[in-house]
Amino acid sequence: MNKRRRLALWLLLASMACACAVTAEERVGQAEGYGGTLKVMVTTDQGKLQSVQVTEHHETDGVGTRAIDALPDRMVTAGTWDVDSVSGATRTSDALRQAVRMALGEDEAAPSPSDAPSPSGAPAAQDKTLSGLGMTATGRVGPGKDDAGNPVYSFNVVFVHGLFDEGGRILRLAIDQLEVATPNAKDAAMPHFSGFPGQGGFTLWDDAQGKTEGQTPDTEENFLAEIEAWESKTQRGDAYRLPAGSWREQMDAYQRLLTGKTVEEAEAWFGQYCSDVTGRPLQPEEENEADAAKYGALTEADQAMLADVTSSATISLRDSHGDIIGAIRKAWEDAQKSPAE
Fold this sequence. Notes:
26% strand, alpha+beta, three-stranded antiparallel β-sheet
């Protein structure tokens, strides 16, 4: 091949490459997801969808992120934004679909084929969200004793509101707990119960003097005032400090940890990674021999995961201080009895 022909061939190939490059186009789109603005970068070539990238999102890890992980590839394979939503992540799926639709410049008022009625005239199936309430109650001897050596008694009531998909996957949890002690408890901030009117006086702990002193007046007024002053552990906020933050901060960490799991997976996580004695997440220095052996049997990856968990949450998920895992289960059982949203 002479030089003139080689040059002509090179110019032809170069022009073809340039033509291809010119046809490729990048566009951006955005929509409001569950946690905030979701943005995408879409690449097309000669009108054909080539890639979908989520450039910004604020969705819940393990829930909304399941749609973000799955849908872009589905859209490219299908050549359209109109693909099925991910079960349990409907809102994120819809936001991603809308953002890509915007990037492609398609009319948002046009109905989606997946939104169209079925041939029978029945509406297309939608993901369902189930809402339920769960409660568990436990009693215990403690916390501690008063200055006369008398035991303190208390009870704990755990309340859980849960949102679930139809398979029992946790979409959102709101957990709170009320702990009420006998009046001789030394923690003055803890809610106390001194008994019902007409049942006699009760010895109270005097926080200022550091000892039990006097009796609560046996009146209806004081009975009502005492109960009205009760605060849940969440309501006590930063005043209820624990070694790894406040009770509220630790419960927030557990709620994030369990979101995205099914109820069965949450129970299995508890069974594998928490103490059979205390219900707390396992740690390297376990005094109980069985717990030490249980921790030692874990993989290094599991131990690293637990180190991350216990950096922000160490309270028990099930013991006499409160049965949180049981309340989640009851919330799911209640959700199955409720109309789907």
